[in-house]
Design a protein that fits this description.
nine-stranded mixed sheet, alpha/beta
């Protein structure tokens, strides 16, 4: 568990992790968790007999359909090469059947699919950590608050999401590493990030749909009981660092185990396996 702390700015990020097996030794298994072509995940496994836990890799792309799980594949390969089981999760996005509420339902269903795969692959579900980049950081932190969905005042149309919140088949996240995550949807809407990405994702503005915006915003579920690392690149001009700062500040004030870390690099350094910014994220995942 990490202690609530103020921002830590990291200069020269350590790459102290010892090398793992070569990526060509990683095993891959693809599974559908629904009937839609975008409802699938790919499990990347190391050669070790029983990985200690699972990392759910959630890609970004401002929730738009032109960006897919190929963004998360290099990360999943790298994590598996370093001895971790990695579940690279695809989901419906705005433009291909996703958006409100399907993207949210997919993310929860995709995480829960691990429950069906655990015995076959020897997965330890007592430690399931999400690594989410950009919009994927939003979805990862949101999913970590799934047990609190019923208290967010969702309209009747959203009951399918609440049913996935805390039932017997739910796989609970035990920690999150957010990589330049969109963690404050209200602020992202005000800033009109990526030409109205938030309104596009949720099917309309917060003025038109205040309840769904509240339901979808990770800020609404503060404080979470699980540790969250909010990692942000100091040169990120795609998602402003204020997105991580305001979330971490609110979570810290509420007593949550959250830490804000600023690392050198731009928005995409965090998903470049060769970049020190990504290697720091991998170290944090290993700690969790």
């Amino acid at each position: 568990m990490i202690a609530a702390a103020a921002a830590v700015t990291l200069g020269a990020v350590s790459a102290a992790c010892s090398p793992g097996p070569k990526e060509d030794a990683v095993k891959r298994h693809k599974y559908q968790y629904g009937e839609d072509p975008s409802q699938w995940g790919e499990l990347f496994l190391p050669e070790v007999a029983a990985p200690k836990g699972v990392v759910v890799v959630v890609h970004g792309g401002y929730w738009r359909s032109q960006y897919g799980a190929e963004l998360g594949e290099p990360l999943a390969k790298d994590l598996a090469a370093h001895g971790m089981a990695a579940w690279n999760l695809e989901y419906r996005r705005a433009g291909n059947g996703g958006g409100w509420p399907n993207t949210f339902a997919d993310v929860l269903a995709g995480i829960d699919k691990l429950g069906e795969l655990a015995d076959e692959h020897g997965l330890g579900l007592d430690r399931v950590v999400a690594l989410g980049h950009s919009a994927g950081g939003h979805l990862a932190v949101w999913a970590a608050g799934r047990s609190r969905l019923a208290g967010l005042g969702a309209p009747d149309a959203d009951r399918q999401l609440m049913r996935r919140g805390d039932d017997d088949g739910a796989v609970q996240l035990t920690g999150v590493v957010s990589q330049s995550g969109v963690l404050n949807l209200a602020a992202a809407e005000r800033l009109n990030l990526s030409n109205g990405a938030v309104s596009n994702f949720l099917g309309g503005s917060s003025e038109k749909y205040p309840k769904r915006h509240k339901f979808a915003d990770p800020m609404s579920a503060v404080p979470l009981a699980v540790p969250v690392y909010a990692v942000h690149g100091t040169e990120d001009d795609t998602v402003p660092v204020s997105q991580s700062e305001t979330y971490a500040g609110a979570a810290k004030a509420a007593g949550a185990p959250v830490q804000l870390l600023k690392v050198p690099g731009d928005h995409f350094a965090l998903i470049d396996p060769k970049a020190p910014a990504y290697r720091k994220c991998r170290e944090l995942v290993q700690q969790l």
